[in-house]
Amino acid sequence: MSGGGAWLARAEALSERLVSVRRRLHRFPELSFEERETARIVAERLTGLGLSCRTGVGGHGVVADIVGDPAGPVVALRADMDALPIAEETGLPFASERPGAMHACGHDAHTAMLLGAAELLTEERAKLKGTVRLVFQSAEEINEGAKAMIEAGVLDGVDEIYGLHNLPTLSAGLTSVRPGPLMGSVDRIEIAVEGKGAHGAIPDQGIDPIVCASAIVLSLQSLVSRETSPFDPVVVTIGSIRAGEANNVIPSACTMTGTVRAFDPEVRRELSGRIERVVTRIAEGYRCRASVTYIRQTAVLVNDAEAARRVGEAIDAVAGADRRLTAAPTLAGEDFSEYLKHVPGCFFWLGSGPERDAEHAFGLHHPRYELNEACLPLGAALLAGIAASRLEEGPLHEPQAAGEGGISP
Ligand code: NI
């Protein structure tokens, strides 16, 4: 088996190909559950490597196994493939040619990196002490792809799973990893407030849902500041409010949507009831009727401590210990957390920003987000190196059943 550094040297040799496939995907981004062409390109490349693929898995997902020793463990590597409904403003020569769609989260690069890792691992296939399962996933951005892939059985027989996300505010060449919770849970709330319409000049003849909704928005913040420990990060953001058409009419109803983030599965569990209480009781006080729909989308992403330690070792071997930082936690979400509810593994950050002043780069999901393509070979080398070294060492744990956050951090 290649030593750690050899993976990077071999990945560097694939650079041009990685850049070209990434740019091709970047020009023609496809939104969640619409990744037909992307999946076709992925399947074509994998078939070209002599792998047999399952396509149409959990949407347009593509899954292929690189089988070394068939009796060994199975380590999965995952990349997401979908783009965002954002109009690109980078002005790059290979900018999106699909109006209103953009690879603003770099999933084009994740796909290219996993294809690169597939190529590196296939060349070493005879030496692999187990199987590497490549998982190209649909619909990460709407938090549905991972669940659909799991339902379709991609984790069957899998012992561990690994994945990465590029980070433009970290310079290319650097990585960061963290044991335990890395990213927050993601839940959606939909609030409907019902009042009674009236002339804007005669409010006493109606029941104003906008004043009530305003009170609800402000009071929801007290759940964060007054009901949650200051040591437990929580975010409640109301992102849309819709009511009324005319400046002088009190409308009969107001609807709002929001996102709720937490970092501790216990804290998350408490929030839905608390939100319901605040919304309905405040509405009562304003003579309105209100209801809350609480949609649990993505769990807290909890890295297995041992898996995170092994990823750290693999990064040190492939890239050098000076390339590895400790990741700060974030309340951004990732549906990779769904896989980690079932099998241990680790998700980590790969720097994709400029060499200097990366902290000022446009962030993920920004219309001017750009990815430093120098990160592509390192991403491919790390994925390959992690999978190969994990197979070399044998499984981390005896198989275990895990609920949300049930894998010991
Ligand atoms: Ni993303």
Explain this structure.
The chain has 409 residues and is α/β, with parallel strands linked by helices. The protein folds into two domains: 4-183 and 300-393, Aminopeptidase; 186-298, Alpha-Beta Plaits, CATH 3.30.70. It has helices at 4-12, 15-27, 36-48, 107-123, 145-151, 209-225, 265-285, 305-318, 336-340, 375-393, and strands at 53-57, 61-67, 74-80, 131-137, 160-171, 175-177, 180-183, 185-194, 198-199, 234-242, 249-250, 253-262, 289-298, 301-303, 324-326, 345-353. The strands form four sheets. The chain has an eight-stranded mixed β-sheet with strand order 1-2-4-3-5-16-6-15, with helices on both faces. It has a four-stranded antiparallel β-sheet with strand order 10-12-8-13, with helices on one face. The chain has a two-stranded antiparallel ribbon with strand order 7-14. Helix 4 links the parallel strand 3 (74-80) and strand 4. Helix 2 runs antiparallel to helix 4. It is elongated, with a radius of gyration of 23 Å. The two termini are 31 Å apart. Bound molecules: nickel (II) ion (NI). Nickel (II) ion is lined by residues 105, 107, 140, 165.
The total count of helices amounts to 10
Number of domains: 2
Helical content band: 25-40%
Radius of gyration: 23 Å
Q: What structural class do helix, strand and pairing data support?
A: alpha/beta
Q: What hetero molecules are in the model?
A: nickel (II) ion
Largest sheet: 8 strands, mixed
Short recap of the structure:
It contains 10 helices and 16 strands. The chain is of the alpha/beta class and 409 residues long.
